[in-house]
């Protein structure tokens, strides 16, 4: 059904530092249209010193839902009235929900990542071994989700070891049964760890548009064909990392599904509506058409 903009149309949207290529407006506006909700989802490109004002706007204009993307996922936390526990522990959030003037922070990337693996990839991560490349904000969410799903062993490789160390220290306290190991990105143990892993997940920005000829993996690394290679990047749809993994026979997945499922989760938090798998599949098809058209 078509939704016309009129005097009662509500505004929701996303704030970020570089969101001109964001697919969130497409995903959310499709959902709004499908459920005939009289709202319009807009992208707002902002700078760090505007976060405070934006949060005041959310209250003043009674904006019901606002998504948050890089690089503000961590910084915005201190402006919330309440933070859902897992978002607090991860230290990053991507969704503001306005509940009668009280602003709540959530991290729907966790659910987005888990559902992308479970529903589409039909991958159970319980008891498995995972390698995570990167230790930034995205990595923190992925590692937290892996720990929640009882992954047996997680090896984090990052350029800056201190950031990996911080995750290890904090998460060990939350998840004492998960073996968290940390290494520098150049550590020669990487091949051995990859040989014993089920999942190899890139959370770094290396290989994303426009720097598409970068690869987070050192040149000499061989990716075994039994591994699942997952890149959080969705533009390009197949990064150099994924192309290499595919060539070596591994199963591959990009960040498109996670993006779609985190959007669905944010939408559900606000509306209480849980889109059916049929609706979600339609949404994913639309998103993939868009991803392909920009590549
Ligand atoms: P995000 O929220 O997307 O995770 P981020 O917090 O800035 O963004 O994290 C970016 C990740 O990509 C980090 O792991 C970063 O490594 P450092 O912790 O050493 O900064 C990694 N990264 C970015 N550029 C990189 C590069 N040129 N080489 C290696 N790692 C890089």
What would your notes on this structure say?
- This protein is of the alpha/beta class and 295 residues long.
- The chain has helices at residues 24-34, 51-60, 85-90, 109-120, 137-148, 161-174, 190-195, 240-247, 256-271, 277-294; strands at 10-16, 39-45, 65-68, 82-83, 95-99, 102-106, 129-133, 153-158, 179-184, 199-202, 228-231, 251-253.
- Helix 1 (24-34) crosses helix 9 (256-271), helix 1 runs antiparallel to helix 10 (277-294) and helix 4 (109-120) crosses helix 5 (137-148).
- The two termini are 30 Å apart.
- The mean pLDDT is 94.
- Bound molecules: 2'-monophosphoadenosine-5'-diphosphate.
- 2'-monophosphoadenosine-5'-diphosphate is lined by residues 70, 134-139, 158-160, 163, 185, 203-206.
Euclidean distance between termini CA atoms = 30 Å
**What is the rounded Rg?**
19 Å
CATH superfamily of the largest domain: NAD(P)-binding Rossmann-like Domain
Instruction: Give the ordered list of helices and strands.
Output: EHEHEEHEEHEHEHEHEEHEHH
Low-confidence runs of at least 5 consecutive residues: none
Largest sheet: 6 strands, mixed
Q: Can you tell me the number of structural domains?
A: 2
Enumerate the strands of the largest sheet in spatial order, edge to edge or round the barrel: 2-1-3-5-6-4
Bound molecules: 2'-monophosphoadenosine-5'-diphosphate
Q: What's the count of strands?
A: 12
How does CATH name the architecture of the largest domain? Answer: 3-Layer(aba) Sandwich
Structural class, judged by helices and strands? alpha/beta
Question: Percent range for helical residues?
Answer: 25-40%
Strand content: 15-25%
- Under CATH at level 1, the class of the largest domain stands as Alpha Beta
Shape: globular
> Number of helix segments?
10
Calculate the mean pLDDT score and round it: 94
CATH topology name of the largest domain:
Rossmann fold
């Amino acid at each position: 059904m078509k939704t016309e903009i009129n005097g009662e149309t509500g505004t929701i949207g996303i704030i970020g530092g570089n969101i001109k290529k964001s697919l969130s407006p497409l995903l959310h506006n499709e959902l709004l249209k499908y459920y005939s909700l009289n709202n319009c989802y807009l992208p707002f490109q902002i700078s760090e010193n505007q976060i405070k004002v934006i949060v005041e706007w959310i209250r003043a204009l009674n904006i019901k839902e606002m998504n948050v993307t890089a690089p503000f996922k961590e910084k915005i936390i201190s402006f919330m009235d309440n933070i859902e526990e897992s978002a607090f522990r991860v230290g990053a959030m991507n969704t503001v929900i306005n509940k009668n003037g009280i602003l709540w922070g959530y991290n729907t990337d966790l659910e987005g990542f888990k559902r992308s693996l479970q529903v589409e990839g039909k991958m159970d991560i319980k008891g498995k071994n995972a390698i995570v490349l990167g230790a930034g904000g995205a990595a923190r969410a992925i590692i937290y989700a892996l720990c929640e799903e009882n992954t047996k062993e997680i090896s984090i490789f990052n350029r800056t070891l201190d950031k990996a160390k911080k995750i290890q220290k904090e998460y060990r306290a939350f998840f004492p049964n998960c073996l968290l190991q940390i290494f520098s990105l150049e550590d020669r143990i990487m091949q051995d760890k990859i040989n014993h892993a089920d999942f190899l997940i890139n959370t770094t920005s290396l290989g994303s548009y426009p720097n598409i000829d970068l690869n987070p993996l050192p040149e000499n690394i061989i990716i075994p064909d039994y591994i699942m290679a997952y890149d959080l990047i969705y533009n390009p749809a197949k990064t150099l990392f994924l192309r290499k993994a595919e060539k070596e026979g591994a199963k591959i997945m990009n960040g498109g599904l996670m993006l779609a499922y985190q959007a669905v989760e944010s939408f559900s938090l606000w509306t209480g509506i849980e889109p059916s798998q049929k609706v979600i599949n339609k949404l994913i098809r639309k998103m993939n058409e868009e991803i392909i058209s920009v590549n």
